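We keep the chain:
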Amino acid sequence: CNCDPPGLRYIGNCSYVDNTKQCDCPKGYEFSSTFHECEDINECLLGSVCPSTTNCVNVPGGFQCECKRGYELESDWDNPKEVGCKDINECSLGGTCTSGTTRCINTPGSYDCVCTEGYYATAAVKGDTYMPMYNVCYGKKTQWEGSVAEAIFSKGIKEQRIPHITL
């Protein structure tokens, strides 16, 4: 049984059903629009094939689920739909929010450093853009005291009332 058309590439299975030759693509592949070859199916485009804490990676004939940044493997990869990745608690690892005037708060896939009570972050504001100047908190008003801005930025200081300057 041969499913390879002359001059064209075919990666498939050939079988006879009721004395009729039948060609099928292997699992993870489908016929191209010309039906002359089997093309890889991108399972990642089909919807939620991986848990929300993972990224889907298409591979020939299948897919893989990889933990997103800030997450680590929670189970084995034998059944990709059952795999989960758990949040890494960066605060428990050390090396985060090390200024002594900040404390670390774990968030899903990341963390925030917040000023401890009585301390304030220093920032500069240019238009509507918040620009962190230092990843530390200060214990008193600074020479740049001005109007109040809200500041939230990934892996940096998070504080509601921030003394700032306008650039």
The mean pLDDT is 70. Residues 90-93 form the longest helix (4 residues).
